[in-house]
Amino acid sequence: AENMETINRETLQADFDAFDISEEFGFLLEEPLVSSFLITIEIFCLYSLCRMSLMPVLIPNLLSDHRELSLAHLALGFISMGYVWQEGQHAPAQVLPKALAVPYWLVSRRLGLPPILTYADSVLANWKLRDPTGNMDLIFSFPGGESCRGFFIVSLLVEMAASSGIGALEVMHAMKSSDVAGIQNGLVKVTQSLKKMKETFKLMHSKFKLNLSPIFVSGWRDNPMLPNGLLYEGVSTEPMFLSGGSAAQSSAIQCFDALLSIQHDDETGAFLTRMRDYMPPAHCQLIETLSARPSLRDLILSCSSSDLCQAYNSCVSAMVDLRSYHLFAVQKYIVGPGNRTMGCPLRGVGTMLNDKGTGGSNLMGFLKGVCNTTKKALISDRPCVQADVHSDRQTEQVVNR
């Protein structure tokens, strides 16, 4: 048993290394670089928004470490978003000047990411330890005080809560050896992770009282404010169409979908697949690895273990709960504030995005759709099942509208 445990630990560690994840931090970038050169970046930020045309083109060829490149991508992403949206929804920039566009493009190519602020940037790589006790803080945020800061902090903490969902890897390996107990134990860990993610999500209301306008994380694909995309000067003669960062780019959520064999409809599934282009390549590889293996749901349907069936249903139900609360939170803190012209950092901006997510999707329709398709994964035609969905009444009201 001890030898088997050692083998399992070695196998999991190999997975952690291959897919760029960790047992402690999950999909978060482990120990992001925070250096004194941030002062130079801050000066560049202030100068660039005013006199970008006079800035020299910086070639990032001296950046070699992955963490250096990640910090550069994060910084260039925040600067670019600030530049494009500094005048609000009615006068966004149509061209990203070459002083930003060229280094951004070069860094992006080396990381395998698009040249836009992604969820992987603003959440997974945008953190530091505030003090020795382990409290986390942001490296970058947009103007707007606690409302904007809270949005990114809560998203960060939700991803941190997903770290125990690494049980998905245990399920994957247990399936290879038909280890029913191993599959069940892994599912229990994923369920606990999903429940913790939902409880952490609630901090968005209880701690930060968010009223958010999402314009500064909006992209230039399927966006009525930039219908012709954005031209990257010095990179391309044609404008680029790129989606802004959104929770649809969360590596953890898409991994759980793949693990549980949750099948979204054609349009939603195509959108989620496209969002993988905005994830770190190693994370995308993990999702594809999970998707390529035999269906966990089919395996459970073919076996006689009622305990395993119940563990699967509990996991799917926890995913439904999380998605339902996400829908409720978006309605209350993003779509609602947009209608009331409140939020950070510019009052009155982002009202054109009420029906569009920052990633370019039909926001409410997309969120309701993923909730409904997740529910369909529940196994309800066998005696082992008791649907374990305990959605908040407020959440259910939003979902059923």
From TrEMBL:
Heme b binds at H326. One of its GO terms (cellular component) is cytoplasm. It holds the Pfam family IDO. PROSITE patterns: IDO_1. It comes from the Eukaryota. SUPFAM superfamilies: Indolic compounds 2,3-dioxygenase-like. GO terms for molecular function: heme binding; indoleamine 2,3-dioxygenase activity; L-tryptophan 2,3-dioxygenase activity; metal ion binding. This is Indoleamine 2,3-dioxygenase 2-like.
